[in-house]
Design goal:
This is GDSL family lipase. Residues 61-271 form the SGNH hydrolase-type esterase domain. The chain crosses the membrane at residues 12-36. It is a single chain. This protein is α/β, with parallel strands linked by helices and 287 residues long. It has one domain (55-284): SGNH hydrolase (Rossmann fold), CATH 3.40.50.1110. The chain is built from 12 helices and 7 strands. The strands form 2 sheets. It has a 5-stranded parallel beta sheet, with helices on both faces. The protein has a two-stranded antiparallel sheet with strand order 6-7. Strand 6 (241-244) and strand 7 form a beta hairpin.
């Protein structure tokens, strides 16, 4: 009987010792973690980077051939993957992107595309970042329609129609997602290469971009990204590179695709990606 009593006391004593040791351990760990660890230590920064690395950004790209990446010899999608990778590398986030660009689409066709395809609507709803390239094919449509008697006035009515279509496009995007940051790229002027006789094309391009920017500025969390001055003048800022001999004179642009002198080449797409990345950096904390 006495033996069982001593045995019970021993077990109770051992349990009390275990509880006491565990309590000391918890106190020591708490003091070490919250008070003794330097706030800006290398370990703290490492934990912070690991935490940020688990953040995910859903990026949706919609638009025309510039979004699809025509002219990109790697066939990876032009500026879209470049911009996504830039976000990955700069902000230690995981970027998942979807590219819905379709070559040849005008503003109206882009609107029809996103209002009819449930896959795009679903992607827009989940998007944190959206890019849009639009307008180049609207300008080309005016040129093709009025090729024999083209003048600056030929663009006046189509420009107003384009602005209305752009407003409808923005409204629909916001109906799908009111919070995502939207970056709208302007158009650029490659037309001096294909239509050298239309000297007004730079003025037309500027007016087209100014009108687009005015509409973008009316939106919330939507930003206009100008690229005309970056691409129109070529890589060296010389409005293309002049090559001449005694018989012929050829103007080329070293930021454009050699096969059509219209779409960007890989360097041109890198220029576009850098422009969007700068805009993102400027506005990323404005949400």
């Amino acid at each position: 009987m006495r033996h069982n009593k001593y045995k019970g006391l021993l077990i109770r004593w051992m349990l009390e010792v275990v509880v006491f040791v565990m309590a000391i351990f918890v106190i020591f760990f708490t003091v070490n973690y919250f008070w003794l660890r330097p706030v800006n230590s290398e370990m703290t920064n490492k934990y912070e980077k690991l935490r940020l690395a688990h953040q995910r950004i859903n990026y949706v790209a919609i638009g025309d051939s510039l979004t699809q990446g025509v002219g990109d010899k790697t066939s990876q999608g032009g500026f879209v993957p470049l911009f996504a990778h830039e976000l990955d590398d700069t902000y230690d986030v995981s970027v998942v992107y979807q590219n819905f660009g379709v070559a040849g689409n005008t503003s109206k066709q882009i609107y029809n595309q996103i209002t009819k395809q449930t896959k795009i609507q679903s992607a827009l709803k989940k998007a944190d970042v959206i890019t849009l390239t639009v307008g180049g094919n609207d300008v080309m449509k005016v040129i093709r329609t009025n090729l024999t008697n083209l003048s600056e006035s030929s663009f006046e009515k189509p420009a107003l129609e384009y602005q209305k279509q752009l407003s409808d496009l923005f409204t629909y995007i916001r109906q799908q997602n009111k919070d995502a940051q939207v970056f709208v790229l302007g158009i650029y002027n490659p037309f001096y290469l294909n239509f050298p006789n239309i000297v007004e094309m730079q003025t037309i391009t500027d007016k087209w971009n100014e009108a687009s920017q005015a509409i973008v500025n009316q939106q919330v969390n939507m930003y206009f990204v100008p690229i005309n001055d970056l691409i129109y003048k070529g890589i060296n800022g010389d409005q293309g590179v002049s090559e001449s001999n005694q018989e012929t004179k050829t103007i080329t642009n070293d930021a454009l695709f050699d096969e059509d002198h219209f779409h960007p080449n890989n360097i041109g797409y890198k220029i576009m990606s850098d422009a969007v990345a700068r805009a993102y950096k400027e506005h990323r904390n404005e949400k």
